Amino acid sequence: MDNSIKPRIALTREQVELRQKMLDEVGRSDYRAVSFRLTGTLISNAFPEFEDIFMLMEEDFRSLTTVKKSFKELRTAAADAAEKKFESSGGATIGRIYEILAKSAKLSPFGRDKLMKRECELAVHFTLTRSLGKELFDEAKRTKKKIVIVADTIYPRNVVVRILSNCGYEQADELVVPSELKGSVTDHKAVYDAVLAKAGVAPAKLLHIGGDVEADIETPIMNGSKALLLSGTIPLMVKSGRLRGWVQDRHVYDYDEPEYLALHGAFGIYAAYLFDVPISKSPQSDFCASEYMLGFMVGGTARAADFRPKDKKQAMLLGLLSDSSEAARGMEDMDRLFHFHFDGHLENYGYKDCDMPLRFFAEHSAVGDRAMLQSRLDPTDFAEWTEGTKEPKLAPVHARKLKRSATAKLADKLFPPGTKVRNIADGMLVKMKGGGK
User: Fold this and answer.
1) Cβ(363)–Cβ(303) under 8 Å?
2) For burial by CB atoms within 10 Å, which of 50, 127, 186, 198 has the most?
3) Which has the closest alpha carbon to 298: 249, 363, 353, 361?
4) Alpha helix (H) ranges present in 287-436?
């Protein structure tokens, strides 16, 4: 990753210690080979939701077919069908997905190939190097370990090679693509065996690093190798505070609509850059007790969207963040990183609800986060802010979107999202789905 685009935040003492422990483990002379899971370990994504890039392809899709359904809807359904159909024979690949998509969307071979190529281009473009993953990779290379990468992706080998090259991993020695292996995609032992064969070492001489507990930790250890867990940046971000759960509660069914792509991108940048080195949630804080992170997500997202405060409280909070050198630096970095990654891609979709982090902070701020700004605020204003703060309603954040049933779509028309009646109904739905306390 280019140092000129990195955020300017210092690691905590715990992060420094964790980073050094992982580097020391990789560098141990006991190991002759190190293997890495690609997704989430060596790379991150500017968009936090896998389906986000599909919304960027709608215009291309419309020019190739008369089918009325959206590209995202058809592409997601094709992926689900491919996962089921090919579960026991390598799983879903982009080629298999697009064969199914071509039938449901009535695409010509030319249209199918054009869209598939476009998706691959976007996947490469929005892939980011995970800095800690790159440091661990470089340490393995420095200490002359053989490096094997597990490319757990639907994309073909040539696309994976482009991603590796763009992200600085072209010096990897071997590449294992699970979809090229025979058997079930859930056969973690088969992938481990392929890694071990490529590494050419005894099990005890292999160290594996990844974020899937079953595949990356349990399987190597049970077969005689060592393993390190490096959690993905998105789960770390979600668990760090209440913000993402609050947004989910407000957008139970419509969060995957195109007008929220900019908000998705803000969360993606926040996760990819500020949760690169795992950081624990801080008590009574939604932003890891960091003024920089507070400024980055709350003020920076509003600034990137050129948002103007709607009331006195929002104006006051943005002013306080601007007056804090740490928070102000965070605001500047989010604005810079957001435009670096998304300029030229999101202008047609707008910046709807990019003020949500600011609204959350104004209405639901945690005690520890308010305390960071208290010394700069008039006691009367601070008391009013504290008295107006309430506990937010949260919904569980799912890796896969909740599907909108016909009933949910009807509810959108009868009770628009954001209305009092709709919020009550959505809260009841979330509890029925197991998200209630």
Assistant:
1) no
2) 127
3) 361
4) 291-294, 300-304, 312-323, 325-342, 356-364, 367-374, 379-387, 406-414, 420-432
| pLDDT number for residue 250 | 94
Residue 57's contacts (CB-CB under 8 Å, 6 or more residues apart) are 71, 75, 115, 118, 119, 122
- d(C-alpha 360, C-alpha 158), whole Å: 43
CA-wise closest residue to 149 among 252, 237, 38, 45: 38
The per-residue pLDDT of the chain, averaged, comes to 91
CB contact at 8 A, 272 and 46: yes
- Please list, residue by residue across 90-119, b when 16 or more beta carbons sit within 10 angstroms of its beta carbon and e when fewer do: bbbbbebbbebbbeebebeeebbebbbeeb
Which alpha helices (DSSP H) does 126-156 contain, by range? 131-142
Task: Quote the pTM value.
Answer: 0.89
Residue 228, strand partner residues: 209
Give the fold, CATH level 3, of 13-46+126-230.
Rossmann fold (3.40.50)
The helix (run of H) or strand (run of E) holding residue 148 is strand 146-150
> What pLDDT is recorded for position 405?
47
Distances (CA, A) of 75 to 63, 88, 103, 218: 16, 21, 11, 33
Q: Is 372 strand, coil or helix?
A: helix
Q: Which of 243, 294, 306, 309 is nearest to 48 (CA)?
A: 243
The pLDDT tens digits for 228-258 are 999 999 999 999 999 999 999 999 889 999 9
pLDDT under 70: residue ranges of the chain: 1-4, 399-437
Residue ranges covered by each domain of the chain: 13-46+126-230, 52-125, 235-432
Hey, is 72 helix, strand or coil?
helix
User: In the prediction, which pLDDT does 89 show?
Assistant: 87
113-134 residue pLDDT tens:
999 999 999 999 999 999 999 9
Cβ atoms of 318 and 358 closer than 8 Å: yes
